[in-house]
Amino acid sequence: MKNFLRKFLNYENRKGFADAVGSGTLLRSGFKIDIRSGQRKKRVFIGSNCVLYCSITLECQTGKVTIGNDTFIGASQLICAQEIVIGSNVLIAWGCTIVDHNSHSIRWSERREDVRLWHEGLLSGYNAAATTKNWEIVPMSPVHIADKSWIGFNSIILKGINIGEGAVVGAGAVVTKDVPAWTVVAGNPAHIIREIPEDER
Predict the structure, then answer these.
(1) How many structural domains are present in the chain?
(2) 17, 37, 49, 145: most buried by Cβ count inside 10 Å?
């Protein structure tokens, strides 16, 4: 009975950070939402009958993550400063990183204080450190992963990417450009290997 209650309470704690969790969705061990700054409301929306082991990091005050129905996400990371949208019937394997921003400015002159400010902020607590970052100088753009797509393990999907319906991203791919619907991409940087014919859809 104690083990059941512990598992139930852990599930409820994980569920509590999401604004909406559809019926039948399983938030499994390893699932977490890390809200580094900003409000907790209206940030994470999860559909029905999903199975999620992933971690979701909301980097700044405006980040929002939406996940459709019947989607599986393994032990992967969604790192969001603006918006990540994942459709329905999507498979995302383990070890994947999906990020909608560059984390830092490309210009040294704009990022030269990043470590010092983070260090100073940590002395006052983790939340204080998160608020020291100047997100206005960090390039960001939403990521959209359409329905029926499959993202192979250890893939990296960078900011501004649109993965088309039914597309397959090969294991270990680094996706730097949009992926057309019903195509297979692989490599670093990812490139089209082939189209998926009608009889394989």
Answers:
(1) 1
(2) 145
Give the tokens for residue 25: 């969705």
CATH assignment of the domain containing 29: 2.160.10.10
| Neighbouring residues of 39: CB distance < 8 A, sequence distance ≥ 6 | 61
DSSP character string of 54-93: -EEEE-STT-EEEE-SS-EE-S-EEEESSEEEE-SS-EE-
Task: Write down the pLDDT at residue 1.
Answer: 45
Q: Is residue 111 part of a domain?
A: no
Domain that holds residue 25: 20-103+138-200
* Active-site hit among 104, 119, 144, 191: 104
Residue 6 has, within 13 A of its CA and on its CB side, a CA count of 4
Phi first, then psi, for residue 164 (nearest 5°) are -75, 165
pLDDT digits (tens, 9 = 90+) for 36-58: 877 777 799 999 999 999 999 99
Residues 39/15, Cβ–Cβ less than 8 Å:
no
101 counts as catalytic: no
Q: Supply the pTM of this predicted model.
A: 0.89
Nearest alpha-carbon partner for 96 in 177, 34, 150: 150
